[in-house]
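Extended Data, panel c. Modelled sequence:
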Amino acid sequence: MSEEVKILEGRERYEYINLIAEGGMGRVYKARKIGVAGFEKIVAIKMLLKKFLDDPDYVASFIGEAKLVANLIHENIVQIYQLERYKGAYYFVIEYVDGMSLYDLIRFHAKLKRTLPLELAVFIAGRVARGLAYAHSRRGADGSSLGIVHCDICPHNVLINTEGVPKITDFGIARMTSKNAVEGKVAGKLAFMAPEQARFEAVDFRADIYSLGIVLFYMISGKMARDVSLSSTEQLKQAQENRIDWTRLPANLPEEILNILYKMLASDLNERYVNTSELARDLEYFIYKDGYGPTIVTLADYMKKLMPGRLGVESEQIDEIDDDDRTMVLNANQ
C-alpha cells in the first residue's frame, strides 16, 4: 500500500488511517473497517513490501502466517481476521493492539535508568508462556500435533494493550524453521535465538521457551544476555555456543527465578521444560504463592502511571525495527 492509498477494496472495505510500524519485510497500518449502516471497527493491516511480491518464498511465508494463526484464538495472541488481496498484493487484517511493544516498555525504563519491577516482568513472561503453551498444544483434525513453533519470540513481537494484556504477534517464520534447517537456512533474531536454531537444526517448542528466557533476562536486568555489538557472524557463534553473561543479572535476584532461567536457557534440550504449560505454572507460582500478585489491571495501572499521556495516545512516530533487532535469514555457508 503506498502512502497515497486511502481505501482498500477487497471483499471488505478498509480506510487507511496511518502507518504504525515498518520492518524489513512488511508494513503495518492502522485502518478502519467500514461496514453497512455506519458500522466501523479499528483494525491493523499487515502488508508485504513490494520488493518481495515476486519472491515465492516470501509470499508463501506471508500467506502461511495468516493461515497458521487464523485458528489460534487466545487472549495472549494477536488474532488474524482475514487474508485479502489488493492489486496483486496480499495483506491480512489483524487485531489492532492499542498500546505499546514490550521492547518500547523496556527501552522507556532504560531511559529512566530503571528496570521493570520483577513481579511485573515475571507476570508478562507468564502470560506470553500461556499464549505459547496454547499454540504449542494445537492439534489438527486428525488429532496429531500441528507442531507450531513461533521461532521469533522477542520484545518487538510482544505487544501490551492499554488493559495490560500481553499479546504475541508476528508468526511470520513459525513452522518454517524445521524446513529451513534442512535447506541450510535459519530465520530469527540472533540476540534471542536458541542454540539449536542457530546451528541450523530442526526445532520444537523448546526453542520458544529458550527465546522467552532471553526476553525474561532482558526484562529483569535491562541488559541483553549476549554481546549484541558484535557482527552477525559473531552473534551467530554466540548463539550456537549458548554464551550467556549471567553476571548481567541483578545480584539480589531470587533463587527461584534464577533456577527458572537456568532451566529455560539450558544448552541440553532435555534439561529445559518438558512443556510450556509447566513453565507458565512455575512463573505464576512465584508471583502468586503468597495468595496475591499482579494482574492485567496492575500492569495497566503501572504503565499509565509510568508514562501518563503516552499510553493509549496515538503516536506520530513510526515504529521502525533497528538493524540489530531485525529478523534475519542466514545460510549455513555464510
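The longest helix spans residues 118-136. This feature is highlighted in the accompanying rendering.
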